Amino acid sequence: MIRKKICMLGAFAVGKTSLVERFVKSLFNARYQTSLGVKVDKKSLAIDGRLLELILWDLAGEDEFVSLRLPYLRGAAGLLLVVDGTRPETLDTALALRDKAISEIGEVPSILLINKADLAEGWRIDPPDIDRLVARGWTILETSAKTGRGVEEAFLALGKEMLQ
Amino acid sequence: MSEALPAPVSGALLELLLQQDASAWLQIGKDGILNDMGGELAHFGLRGLVPGEPAAEQLLFLAGMLPLGNAPVTLAAVELGPDRHADIHLLPEARRDWAVLIDRSNSLYWRAQAQQKANELNLLHRRLLRQDSLPTQTPAAAPAMASAMLCNALDMTVLERQADGGFRLLGTPPAEFVTLCPDSWQTDKGFHPQREFPFLENFIAEAERVWDTAAKPRRSGPWVETDARGGEHALEAIAVLWAGRRLLIIELLGERYEEHRNFLQMGRENVLLRNYLEEQVHQRTAEIRAREEEIALRLVWAAESRDDSETGAHIRRVGLYSEVLANAIGWDRPSVDDIHIAATMHDIGKIGIPDAVLRKPGPFTREEFAIMKTHPVIGGRILAGSRSPMLQMAKDIALSHHENWDGSGYPYGLKGEAIPMAARIVALADVFDALVHARAYRPGLSADAALEIMARNRGRQFDPNLFDEFVRQQPRFKLIAEEQSVMLFEGFRDNP
To answer: Is the pLDDT of residue A72 over 80?
Structure first.
């Protein structure tokens, strides 16, 4: 079995923990509970006939209270950058975190998740900003930890990229 | 401290607890012999203490106090020397030893901390008394084991790195800890905690540096593990090199983690609420602002429709560029909204320029140019005296958008930061948009070509830092510049 470490990165309250819970346990808790520190979960996936064990590092969101501890990123083979579609500033945070991460561990496959797709009517991220990232080669997926939309696909997509 | 200390683990623990304030500690056997000591003893004038000798003979404040009773006692504000006062916390037995904490007496905060430590050690005492079946130890191992038990009872697990890369467990881990990896706690086998807790794979690499270089103890930061029943447990690891021993202390954070998390949650919920309310206010005022903007734009258009070189779309785009740039440099939301409208009025003073000058197709004479250069002052006068922050900003922009960073602009030759920031922003936006769009007398340039020209005036015409930010925002500006459907206002497209 191949093991790969994935780090979940993003601003606070974008839904990183909820995405992991949804993916690993098929659970969704509507109440926001902030993370402190790191939570590590595992889940195995079969991709193209190969068994891949994902070691999911759910890192506490970054804000004025807490900043990312770069040593946590060591050994990461992929990044899931999570953005809250209803809070445009979380896109800037995710991009800044990616830059930090890349400077620490080098280029690794990354996927940007615009989470809270169940609240898409209230999204305030400018579509041109997303188009610009897509034009630069980013893989961007819409997810909802609440409905499960896109969650499995997101981890699968990153898994595939990491195996390439 | 001596290398031959009998209790390295408790010493490391207490050092960690006390290292940030000038405190000291003593461990005294039940026979009254001073067994161990550490911290800032010299700070309290406690020098020349000899382990292995009766404690009360060396420390006057202990005279008559030993043996200690069952309850912790604090001797407040004990004079240990000239201007040296301390609170001394006497903590009854930690199974084999008494602990004495010596703390500054003038800090309520640290007094509270010391009391907390006293309470924890008292708890330790009770818990140790409940443990009936302690493993039998050899005399040499006993003090280290007792020290490890001190940690264990404080919800810490102490591991010592072995030569083969595995770890040896010291003492008995707390029961809560065992639930996390019930099959792995066998003291006769090497233990590899990173196999149970992948989080430690990273931290052990950091710990190696602490152990190899005798660096200060290092904390891992908290992490969360889930037991077989789905219960979550917050942990933190501490790497310590103590008397040559490579220790990894894993602490169960328990309520402290929850308290910290609750504190963080409260702060973050407040931030979310504040942002939500700001957004609500913004949405509610958006309609009012849209009306305000339309009135402003219609008036500006009325003023500028005489000028063949200006278009309504240009006016509108200058507002959009300015909004993006103001946002990028961190302006607050109301000010960003203000500049979106205020920037459109930058040339409103042209209303006072005669047709013969304003609409002249060829180059200006010196006199005509002098007349043209009065439009900022006219604009400033038109917009002056308002109590509206947006119109006050519009006045600054109208008056100063032709000032140059090096003082060579007009009307007043203002220099550097004496030029209002809003005017510096609009100066960039105005020039950029004029360059990238065709005029009657020349074709439009590409954004890159426009920037190249503008870069020559970085630090001369333009604020250099602002110009750099402007360049960073180019992808957004290009989108605005390429937008063919920019309307001056709803239902009015002036430049098809």
So the answer is: yes
Nearest to B59, CA basis, from B83, B107, B27: B27
Range of the domain at A113: 2-163
Determine whether the interchain pair B221/A33 forms a contact, defined as Cβ–Cβ distance below 8 Å. Answer: no
CB A111, CB A141: distance < 8 Å: yes
CA distance A96 to chain B (A): 14
Q: Are residues B313 and B450 in the same domain?
A: yes
Note down the domain range covering B89. Answer: 8-130
Residue where one domain finishes, among candidates B212, B234, B252: B252
For residue B464, count CB atoms less than 10 angstroms from its CB and return exposed for 0-12, middle for 13-18, buried for 19 or more: exposed
Q: Is the pLDDT of residue B57 over 80?
A: yes
CB contact under 8 A, B224 and A38: yes
Residues B119 and B205 in one domain: no
* B222 vs A32, A37, A55: nearest CB: A37
Residues B218 and B297 in one domain: no
Picking from B231, B252, B273, the residue at the C-terminal end of a domain is: B252
pTM given for the model: 0.57
What value does the mean pLDDT of chain A take? 91
Q: What is the CATH number of the domain that holds A79?
A: 3.40.50.300
* ipTM metric: 0.88
**B5-9, B55-59, B81-85, B479-483: least confident range:** B5-9
- Total CB pairs under 8 A between chain A and B: 69
Residues B162 and B218 in one domain: yes
Across residues B161-181, what is the average pLDDT?
82
Please count the structural domains in chain B: 3
Which of A34, A72, A74 minimises the CB distance to B264?
A34
Sign of CA dihedral B94, B96, B102, B105: positive
Average pLDDT rounded to a whole number, residues A147-152: 94
Number of structural domains chain A divides into: 1
Which pLDDT belongs to residue B306? 67
Q: Report the alpha-carbon distance of residue B34 to residue B31 in Å, rounded.
A: 9
Contact B275 A87 (CB under 8 A): yes
Record the tokens describing residue B183, joined without a space. Answer: 């099959």
In a domain? residue B167: yes
pLDDT band for position B58 (50/70/90)?
Answer: confident
Residues B238, B321 within the same domain:
no
**Residue B67 located in a structural domain:** yes
Considering only the beta carbons, identify the residue of A38, A63, A69 that sits closest to B271. Answer: A63
**A55 part of contact set with chain B, CB < 8 Å:** yes
Q: Within this chain, do residues B369 and B322 fall inside the same structural domain, yes or no?
A: yes
**For residue range B317-367, what is the model confidence (pLDDT) as tens digits?**
899 999 999 999 999 988 999 999 999 999 999 888 898 888 887 788 999
A5, B264 contact by CB (below 8 A) = no
> Does residue B187 sit in the same domain as residue B297?
no
Question: Given A39, A69, A75, which is nearest B201 (Cβ)?
Answer: A75
Average pLDDT (A117-134) is 87
Strands B73-81 and B84-94, by their bridges, are antiparallel
HSE-CB at B495 with a 13 A cutoff on CA atoms is 21
Helices B333-342 & B421-436, crossing angle to 10 degrees? Answer: 50
Contacts of A5 in chain B (CB under 8 A): 198
Query: In CATH, what number is assigned to the domain containing residue B246?
Result: 3.30.450.20
Identify whether B274 is part of a domain: no
What is the least distance, in Å, from the CA of A40 to any CA of chain B? 7
Lowest mean pLDDT among A17-21, A77-81, B30-34, B282-286: B282-286
**Is residue B234 situated within a structural domain?**
yes
Enumerate the residues of chain A whose CB falls inside 8 A of the CB of residue B476.
128-129
Q: What residue has token string 């948009």?
A: B433
CB within 8 Å: B202 and A72 = yes
Do residues B232 and B292 share a domain?
no
> How far apart are the CA of B317 and the nearest CA of chain A, in angstroms?
16
The number of CA neighbours under 13 Å toward the Cβ of B183 is 3
Interchain pair B203, A55: CB under 8 A: no
Q: Does A74 have pLDDT greater than 80? A: yes
